[in-house]
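WARN retry 2 of 3 for item q-0093 after timeout on previous attempt; input resubmitted unchanged.
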Amino acid sequence: MNERKEQIIGEAIKIVANEGYGKLSMRAVARKSGLKLGALQYHFPLWGDLLKGIAEYIMTKYFGDTELSRQNPISLANQENYAQSHARDGETWPQLRALVKAILKDEAGAELNSETLFPQLWAMAQVEPIMDELMGEIYGQYLDVLERTLVESDVPNPRTHARALVTLLESSILFLHWDKRVKDSLESEGELVFAYVDSLTSARSGD
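OK item q-0093 returned
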């Protein structure tokens, strides 16, 4: 994706994250990008092309084999080295723990404003078949990263536990935000996820 396309997609993502997916349109993106509609359609001829561009941009930030993603610990290109360099000596399943910490830190998400962007994309996927398919691709790669690390950590039933971890990592923050007894949603999310990882350790020790 060239620099101009990235700039346009960046504006589209800002609209979704800050104003809601209902405000996203070709005209709105053209206006935010300082383009006429025809100029925007030179880069993204159809609505589906724009949505695919958004998904591609997100996947590149998190998973793509680019210089940017190599600096991002969740990326497939860097997750193994990151896990090895950040694991504590004597820690059970250090690579898994390091990866979970990287996901919770979510460096790419800070740029994407992921806390508001992804709930909007989830909602959009319910009414836009193209976005539904694209979100499946994004989370499919996410699941693969976790499953691969679980396999390498010799965790039993890796696909099942990868799905459980994705569910915890992606949805717990929403419900914790609504729990008025929780003082710090992000801290509580980390405690919840690592309690699950610890339960895997305990189950493994009992084998």
